Amino acid sequence: MNDLINNTSNRMQKSITALIDAFKKIRTGRANxxxxxDVKVDYYGNLTPINQTSNITVEEGxxxxxxxxxxxxxxxxxxxxxxxxxxxxxxxSGDLIRxxxxxxxxxxxxxxxxxxxxxxxxxxxxxxxxxxDSNQNAKDSESSGEISQDDLRRLExxxxxxxxxxxxxxxxxxSKKEEDLIEI
Length: 184
Description:
Oligomer: single chain
CATH superfamily of the largest domain: Ribosome-recycling factor
Number of strands: 6
Strand content: 15-25%
Strand order of the largest sheet: 3-4-6-5
CATH topology of the largest domain: Topoisomerase I, Chain A, domain 4
Helix content: 55-70%
């Protein structure tokens, strides 16, 4: 019985982790190195994340400074950032690549908020699907005689509590992301 609840909780936590990762990809007006997490550079024939080839720091809140460990990678890093379709334009000065974050217009803010809400809804759907699967497993256990009807009710109540907990986490994360997007 506890195994089912733990499994349900673990699966729901993975949905939250996926949501947070999706939120990192939605750009806000502030510079954050995590926006480059999925950008890969051709590093001696292997596609390697930028953060494994360079130091990435935030300068003055609105720009990123990328300092490659291997200076010959500068053109590759620029090309990778431009090709990542993030709406960012890197500029090189010596051994440093600077990426200025464009100021978000009201239209882009609304578009990003809409995207964040869609990601949150996908996470909610995922959590509800996990609840459905767990409830079905519990009913299967009851019909096979492994647990009683009372145990089934308690199990379903516990599954619902987990679902409510994780849905509220989704709502909380969405609120934080919307606040970030609304800030100037």
